Amino acid sequence: MNLYEHTIIARQDTSPSEIKQLTEKYSKIVEKNEGEIIKTEIWGLLNLSYLIKKNKKGSYIHFKIKGRGDVINELEKNESIDKKLLRYLTVRVKKFDLETNYFIKKDDSEKKEVNKN
After folding, report:
1. pLDDT tens for each residue of 81-94
2. Domain 2-95+104-116 architecture
3. Which of 15, 83, 87, 101 has the greatest count of CB atoms below 10 A from its CB?
4. pTM surpassing 0.90?
């Protein structure tokens, strides 16, 4: 079994309920193709580096997937025809980093400590 990190970017006008539906839809596709979702992270609405289909922002959803290459082929086939998505990217990794959450917002107290040093 291979390990993959898969990120999709949904349009900026996608509602939170639609984000949840997208997450469930693609999780079911992975499970249907004998894959396993290890972790799902919803990173939220982030700025894009450049305009994509007239969008300045996008809602990011990140999956950590364990499975064969067939799973990714099926996922990308479905994502390429989905009008709600702007982009998707799959990267094969050697192991997952399950502890670090890169997109969590820091407290004001943590920011102040960083500024003092």
Report:
1. 989 999 999 999 99
2. 2-Layer Sandwich (3.30)
3. 87
4. no
